[in-house]
Each structure stands twice: as C-alpha cells, then as structure tokens.
Amino acid sequence: MKLKEKLNRLSVTIFNDEYVIKGQADESHIEKVSVYVDRMMKQISQKNPDLSPKQLAVLTALNTTDELLKLQENYDELIKLLDEADNK
Hints:
Layout: E1 8-14, E2 17-23, H1 27-47, H2 53-86
Helix pairs in contact: 1-2
C-alpha cells in the first residue's frame, strides 16, 4: 500500500457486536457491506436460533461466498456471450 493512500476507519455494529473496520473503500461502501453482513446473520439466526456465533459466522460466509460465485459464473457467461456476439 502506498503511504499516501488514505485508510478510512468506521465503527460498525454487526449482530450486536461493534467492530472498527479500516480500509481504503469509501465509508459508505464499508457501511453498505456491514449492513449486508448484519442482515444476513440476523436472517440465518432467525431460521437457526441454536447456532453459536462462530457457526453463524461460518454459515454467513458460506452463503455470501455462494452468492459471489454464482454472480461470478453469471458474469463470466455474459462476457462469453458478448464475446461470441462480437465475433459474429
């Protein structure tokens, strides 16, 4: 990381715990990500109230990664279709 790059620091609450997040992303993006993770954890917890916080975090990570990979596959397929259309 370059010395001139600014690190943003934001205090967020995820699943009733406070975290200080540091990163180069805009504070609004950090907040958006935090709200998304908090919402997912709450949704999973409502369906599975007996999960430990660790289990809940792992399931949230798995669900989020599943979404990411599906979106990546869709994106790759779209790029492939666009490339094929350009080559016609």
